[in-house]
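We emphasize that the prediction below concerns an isolated chain of 269 residues; any contacts that depend on oligomerization or on bound cofactors are therefore not represented. The input was used exactly as deposited, without trimming of termini.
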Amino acid sequence: MCDTRPPVMNTGRLKGRVALVTGGSRGIGRAVAELLSQEGASVAVNYRVRAEEAAAVVAAIRDQGRQAVAVKADVASRPEVDAMVDQTCSALGPIDILVNNAGLLATGNLLQYEPDEFERMWRVNVNGVLHATAAAAPSMIEKKYGRIVNLSSIAALGTAVPGTTLYAATKGAVQILTKRFALELGPHGITVNAVLPGLILTDMVSEGHTEEEMQRRIEAVSRKSLLGRVGEPGDIASVVAFLASDESGFMTGQFLTADGGRTDLLTHA
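Result of the prediction step, given as a token string:
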């Protein structure tokens, strides 16, 4: 079987940049943190409770001769986010790149959902993007440069997947914030874009499912993909790295979908 992961890049296009990746201890966040470091950036790896996993990411980056630091914060809390940004700036310098990756996935639909779970998901998925962007933006405005990349989801486009209604609502909000932040920050030389992943094989999507259940899900989604497969974290990290670089300097307020060509959107389900 062919290796479907993207090749390791080391172009140095992010040399001298400082990046903060929220939810960077595992899954997509880890892949993003490691790729940005390979491209030359110094990286702050945010975590909430997974201290050992965050430390492992930092160690892997430092083993490659790059700078990295782990920063603890619950992105749902503005005071903790402010402290996270201050710690990043003290350790690595002013933030050039913010990747709003931290997120929760709670199932639910109109007639069956847990209000507390939905409220927590909203605070992390939506308020977390607001808090981190508001905290990081002032220093970007001061130097008239910044790259902000938000992680949304194809759920916000209307995938025909049961149980994702409330999750989709949070990711739809992320897309609105992406557009509005692009409007507000564009005059200051700051770009704001979003990546919309499809099904990506991470710990988060497999939690609560047996190996057999996940295999059935992978096979079902692969049949609905033009490329015939689901994604790996590296597939998304490559898109984020592009949006974090100067190569995307004339793009803002945009949504880049990376889902292998899914055909199960509600518009044509």
